[in-house]
Amino acid sequence: MSSLQSFIAVSTSTANDLRHLFRLNGQKAPPSTQPYFPRISCCFVSEDTQKSAPSISTGNRLLSAKSEDLIEREKRVLMGTYVRAPVVLVRGKGCKLYDVDGMEYVDMAAGIAVNSLGYGDGEWVKAVAEQAKSLAHVSNVYYSEPQVILAEHLVEYSFADRVFFTNSGTEANEAAIKFARKFQKVSCDSDTHATEFVSFSNSFHGRTMGALALTSKENYRLPFEPVMPGAKFVKYGDIDGAKKAIVPGKTAAVFVEPIQGEGGIHSATKEFLQTLRTACDDAGALLIFDEVQCGLGRTGYLWAHEPYGIVPDIMTLAKPLAGGLPIGVALTTEKVASAISYGDHGSTFAGSPLVCHAALTVLKRIKDPSFLSAVTNKGLYFKELLTHKLGANSHVKEVRGLGLIIGIDLDVLASPLVDACRALGLLVLTAGKGNVVRLVPPLIISEEELKQAADIIERCLPALDADSVQ
Ligand code: PMP
Fold this sequence. Notes:
amino-acid biosynthesis; alpha/beta; PyrdxlP-dep_Trfase_major; transferase; 16% strand; Aminotrans_3; PyrdxlP-dep_Trfase
């Protein structure tokens, strides 16, 4: 059965089920035996595909009064920075999300690679509730035990000797920038120490003025220039270009994602990372791995750099560590940490007992070898299934990734497919230039749910054609 046939077969009933959800703008409702792609012009986009200031259109979708009201209220009071899908989510359980109208979604977005233990995990909820009851926040001018225990665990399981907590991935990278600058200042005798940074095409490191300077996409940077000066971009994977760009006395550090998430699920080669390591060592520069999206079990390894056997001087983490609470970390070697003095950096909220206690639950679960091997096996199963189901479609160029960070590379924009999937109860993200479907589900997802997701994507593939002929 072709993908179009299977779509028609399945969508016969689904279109009926969905009928109540869509207003047909004067059009006749399609006969229930026809495949029906509601035209929803807004998609659930990643940071990487958000346009500057489009108005949010709900297309033909008939929103419930509750949804419509909230969406209207949001428009009036929130800064218009997010292009949101017209879905008001109210609840989650396991790998499923539920909207205000009771519609169930299989969640392959996980809050953008955040909710690794899914929603409502018993152990996590208990840890948060207990800590909230006893002590949620204290200033970093005092000590608190969960922060120290979490740091001890992170040090024990990684290359690092020292830990600095932040509240987000961007902040972790901002801390890494400062640590690299201070390291160079302290380790260089002359007044003119290395202050520049190298990062790569398709990179995403955040949106504050330092991290933004290292984020490749011009749409994000140009409106806010001047950002931090001294950032150089090299093509991701370009070994000769990287060697030339890393200059003794000039390059303070090199920022690289071992697997790029926002950029479209691109994995570094071992040769590329090894070249960066050697060039940094030769130049006295630091090598910084941004594992904000790809780290902490997502690839089936606790650290995405593990299978490469190459170790950084600094690694940044964030998204999944506290199971949905805001956290970021810059992990460093003693060599880097020794350059940092009291008062060099700080944060009011970072490393709070509440967040660190929640993170301990997550880290304990994720680092378990059986949890990690399950991620590997589920990733292999899912990639094979997707390749089998989607590979013959002319729009699908490649299914790639490692563990449960998977990209479906298309020769067209992915948004019609994303919209169609959502209408059938599947949440997926885009990446790259909007041409990649990004799948980063909770790491606890079952094979059955992965099959459900693959089936829906297969059924929705004709949306890529349907959109272009309308
Ligand atoms: N680095 C990478 C690799 C990311 O994917 C992201 C977020 N998508 C960030 C940094 C920024 O993290 P945050 O949004 O938590 O500030």
